[in-house]
Specification:
about 0% strand; mainly alpha; elongated; about 140 residues; about 55% helix
Length: about 140
């Protein structure tokens, strides 16, 4: 959440830390992680901007990557089987537009609802209900 840093003095201190190096290596590595607003903030601070060696922007996922992402997260949680129906995943993708954090939120709540109902798979009805609750539609 580095985009929330408002005091430019903090960025200046980070820049000064990056000056510590020997003849053959850097002594400090700094990772700044944040939302897209961070880019504009860093670009404005030229001396810090010049010291950033690697930049990476995580884009939203397409529908195929969303399927794989959900399957991967389930597998990492110890669930080897896909618990979401194809229609549920399509609804998740349509609602989240492929944003990983939003996918996580919808899936987590859907799994909790599914657990409370003792169902073996999460269908589009559960996901639609979760989305409806998330957007506050009654």
């Amino acid at each position: 959440e580095a985009q929330l840093i408002e005091d430019d003095a903090v960025f200046e201190e980070l820049r000064l830390l990056l000056n510590f190096q020997t003849d053959d290596r850097f002594l400090v590595t700094v990772l700044l992680i944040g939302s897209p607003e961070l880019v504009a903030k860093v670009r404005r601070l030229k001396h810090l901007d010049q010291r950033i060696a690697i930049r990476y922007h995580l884009n939203t996922l397409d529908d195929a990557h969303t399927v794989n992402y959900i399957a991967h997260r389930l597998k990492m949680a110890g669930q080897p089987n896909q618990m979401f129906t194809d229609a549920a995943i399509k609804l998740i993708f349509d609602f989240t537009r492929g944003t990983p954090r939003e996918i996580n939120n919808v899936c987590d709540i859907s799994l909790l609802v599914g657990y409370s109902r003792r169902v073996r798979e999460i269908d589009e009805k559960i996901v639609a209900e979760v989305i409806k609750d998330m957007v506050g539609v009654s």
